[in-house]
Design brief:
Blueprint (H helix, E strand, L loop, with lengths): L4 H6 L3 H31 L6 H21 L2 H36 L21
Helix pairs in contact: 2-3, 3-4
Length: 130
């Protein structure tokens, strides 16, 4: 099954080597998102989908889309194209949620008299929005 691969690799032209390396790098970023998700979940002690998952999805998926376009593979292009929409939309939703949480947090820190409650031990210190 792997016979002939070494001959094929050694006969590649420089631009073909570039695209091969680019494809492997893209796949590495795309696969790293699951490793990142697993590590963050282990640290938190619960399953979670961190922001880094979506960033690595966008980076790896974008690179794979470029690679698919280079290969002119319509199946690969369609799959990665849909994925890009999903990754961008999730990042938009996370950004919107964080903006809402920041506004609520700011409202809690500023009382009706205009003074901040930063020294109040009951004030939230960190909000996990993942």
């Amino acid at each position: 099954m792997l016979q002939g691969w070494s001959d094929k690799l050694t006969s590649l032209k420089p631009w073909e080597m570039f695209w091969l390396g680019f494809g492997f790098a893209a796949q590495s970023f795309f696969a790293a998102r699951f490793v990142w998700q697993w590590l963050v979940s282990e640290k938190k002690g619960r399953s979670t989908v961190p922001l880094g998952f979506w960033i690595l999805s966008l980076l790896g998926g974008g690179m794979l889309l470029v690679y698919a376009c280079h290969l002119k593979d319509p199946v690969f292009i369609a799959g990665q194209g849909l994925g890009m929409f999903i990754y961008v939309r999730n990042l938009m939703l996370i950004s919107q949620r964080r903006a809402i949480v920041r506004q609520r947090h700011a409202a809690l820190l500023v009382g009706g008299n205009g003074k901040t409650h930063a020294d109040d031990s009951a004030a939230p210190r960190r909000i996990d929005v993942s």
